[in-house]
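step=predict obj=DUF3805 domain-containing protein n=139
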Amino acid sequence: MKVPSNDLLEGEEGSWWLSIPPGWSEVSDPDCATIVSEGELGTLQISAAFAPGDVTDADLRDFAQEHIDAGAPTADVVAGDFRGFEIAYDDGEAYWRQWYLRAGSQILFVTYGCPLDAVGVDDAALESALGTLGAVGAH
């Protein structure tokens, strides 16, 4: 069930949050936090994990190793309180952007997918929303 919202999307126990872009809606998903774009062209999903100590860039690369080994280029990113890298690719049926992010002991795996004919439509909203990513204890 979709719930229209211009509020915050929050992770488990409020460990992370981001501002939902105007026109996007939160969708109930038992496995991760999910929002869909206006017209439901694109879907953004966020899942979190925690390490016993601070997460490093090497830890993120280990997490994404399958894509890196397949030749996916990485681009360093800053997303609010989080740092990491992004991978973008299409699988012949859909376009995917994946962010591997870290802040302290927290890892965020952020995935955006859309049809190939909608590539770029949500880019401004994605960049704006990811810029609001906050992490508990980051300030």
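step=describe
Helices lie at 57-63, 65-69, 123-130.
step=end
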